[in-house]
Each structure stands twice: as structure tokens, then as C-alpha cells.
Amino acid sequence: MKYIFVYLVTLLAFLNSVPGKAQEILNLEDAVRIALEKNYDIKLVANDLAIDRNNVNRANAGMLPTLGANITNGNNIQTGRQTRQTGLQEFNNVKSSNTSYGTDLNWTVFDGFRMFARYEQLKELAKLGDAELKQTILTTLGDVISTYFELVNQQQQLRAYDSAIVISRLRVQTAQNRFTIGKAARLEVLNARVDLNTDTTNLVQQQNLYRNTQIRLNEILGRDVNIVFQVPNTLYIDNKLTLGPLSELAVQQNPALKVALVNKRIAELDLKQVRANRYPTIGVTSGYTFNRSQSALGFATQANNRGLNYGLSASVNVFNGFLQRRNEQNAETLIQSAQLQYEKADLNIKSQLAAAYQTYATNLTLVTLEENNQKIAKQNLDITLDKYRLGSIAPIEFRDAQLNYLNARVRFNNAQYLAKLAEISLKEIAGDLNL
């Protein structure tokens, strides 16, 4: 109990030594919420999705008419002469003007069904943007959760290094007492102090790594990188995952597969638009115009007219050097490529899932082994510590036992962290990254 008390006091002293004593406790749920609200990658992709959704309209597909208004006004001043039947007439700085304005309506009523394929393609592009946003969110949450538990692991390592310092200080004090009463040489005290300095160096390096990881997590969250916080010292591992259900979830929910499927659909709609060139294009035009002209010369010095005009236009591609067939072949090839991309993505996801599950199962086994190894190392350290206080073992044997226990704790913490990373990877690939 005495050593536990000293250990807790030392740990609290370390935590209070970090700048900003009133540190926030950042829970995983809060970290995920902040990332969803502030992460820049998510915001950027969300803006792209907003544009894609805004583009889904019939006018953008060319299905609606266009109406325009125009006005023109022209003036000129002329100097010259004219020969008429009545004789020669000269004029100097004679002004004339012409003004016209009106509206024009143009509407393509048939273009070989291209406008309908284009409208469906706009919808698919919005679906593609939605899938890409989900993929970005999934990737970002994976980074947040992984970095969060990396902090938990490093926090546990800090406790391990801190406990090593507590034991090393006890060793220095014991060696000093033994030297004072003449039962130990000066060399034993010096060796104990060297080992204490070594453990202190390891702790300082771990503190630096811990702080840098805090900064990196703040960056992912999209907030001030100088915020100092703590995370709960808990690392729960879901050890009940199985490969079969995860594979089924990946087929249904993995965003990369959804992106590949949407890209194939977009390629199919491209082919429809290319084939539309085989059909005629029919359009209607209409307009209303007003025209007024004034001139000091000629038989009519002023003229006004207005009226409605309308018409029908049609065009068809008769021959373009066999480019139509070539374009269709290229579009069909792109569909085949999109299918291959989907099959490649499907195989890649299955490969990632199988490898991640193997890593997950292996790390679960290592967690059990390292947990047992840590218990054994702790028992060995307790026995060695008692013997060292009694002076029945050499200092080097005590140091070996201390390092064995420290390394066992570090390996156990790392095994837990790696198992958690494998769990996160499995859920991310399956598209079901829950907390």
C-alpha cells in the first residue's frame, strides 16, 4: 500500500505539471461529435455534395426552354450626295437611328433522349457525392478513434514509466541507506542513480510523445491545437467480432463499393448520351420583336414594325466519319472498366478484411499472453524487491526484475492498443464504425 500511495502521488504531480491545470476530460463521444462538426475534410466534401445536389435540376439537364430579352440601338451621321431623278441632292451631317428590342424563346423538345439520361446522371453524381462524404466521415472517424486510443495507450505507458521511477527512487534510497551503514559500496549508489536518470529520461520522452499526439488529435478535430486535455484511462476491446457478418456488412455498407457502383451507373448513362446522337434534334423557336428606324433621307423618314415570329428546327447527323460508332465503342469500354473497378474494389476490401481479422485474432491472443506475463513479472518484482531490501541479491538482479516488469507492462499496453486498432480497422472496412 505504501508503494501504491507513493505512485499515485507521483502521477498526480506529473499531471499537474502539464500547462493548464484545469484540463478537460475528453470522452470519445465528444471527440467524435467535435470532428463531425469541425473537421475540415468533412466540411470540404460536404460542400462538394451540396453543389452536386444543387445541380440536380431539369434546366441543368437541358429539359427546359430558355427565354432571353435583347435591345439594340444604332445611330449614324452621314455626309454625302445622292443623284435622283429630280436632280442632285447634297446632305451634310444627316442623322439616322435604328432601335429594336424583343424576346426570344428556344426549346429543344427532343434530342434523342439525351436530356433524360443527363438528368439521371446528375442524380447519380449526387449519389456519388453522398458516398464520398460517407467515406470521408468514416475515414475521419477512424483517425479520431485510433488517435484517441493511441492517447489512452500512451497514458498507460506514462503510468508504467512513472511507476518505474517510483521503484528506482526507492532503490536509490535503499542503496544510500546501505552505504551509510557500511553494507554497500559507493558504486551501488551511483548505479542506482544512473538507472533513475535513465527511467526519468524515458518518462520525459514519453511525455513529449503524449503531448504531440494530443496536438495531432486536436488538428483532426479541427480545433485549437494548443488545447490540453486528458482522456479516460480505459481501453475496451470488442473480442466477439466474426468474419462472416463483417463481410456481409462490407458488401452492404462499404462506401468504396458504393462509389464503384455509382461510377458504373454513370458510365452507362454516358453511353446513352452518346447514342442520342443517332436521333434527330428537334427544337421550337419563338419571339416577339419591335423595330423602329428614323432617317432624314429616303422616301420614308420613319418606320415602325412589331410582330411575333415562331418556327421549328430539326437536325440529324447523317455521317461524321464513323465517329459515332467509335464514340459508342469507347463508352462501352468505359462501362467495362467501371465493372472491373468494382470487382477490384470488392476483392481489395475482402483482402483487407481478411488480413485485418487475422491481425485482430492474433492480437487478442497476445493480449491474454501479455496479461499473464505482466502478472508473473509483477510477482517476480515483489519477491526481488523484498530480497533487495534484505540485501540477499545483487543490485543488477533487482534492476533486471524491474526492467522485466516495466517491459511486460509496456508490451501488455501495446498488445491492447494493437488489438483495438485491429478492431477499429475491421469496423471501418465493414462501414460500421460504432463507438
From TrEMBL:
InterPro entries named among the record's database cross-references: OMP_efflux (IPR003423), TolC-like (IPR051906)
Gene Ontology CC annotations of this record: cell outer membrane; efflux pump complex
SUPFAM superfamilies in alphabetical order: Outer membrane efflux proteins (OEP)
Main location: membrane
Signal peptide feature range: 1-22
Domain of life, per lineage: Bacteria
GO terms of molecular function: efflux transmembrane transporter activity; porin activity
Gene3D superfamilies per the UniProt record, alphabetical: Outer membrane efflux proteins (OEP) (1.20.1600.10)
Subcellular localization(s) per the UniProt record: Cell outer membrane
UniProt keyword terms in alphabetical order: Cell outer membrane, Membrane, Signal, Transmembrane, Transmembrane beta strand, Transport
UniProt KW Membrane keyword: yes
DNA damage found in the keyword field: no
Similarity field: Belongs to the outer membrane factor (OMF) (TC 1.B.17) family.
Protein name: Outer membrane protein TolC
Organism: Adhaeribacter pallidiroseus
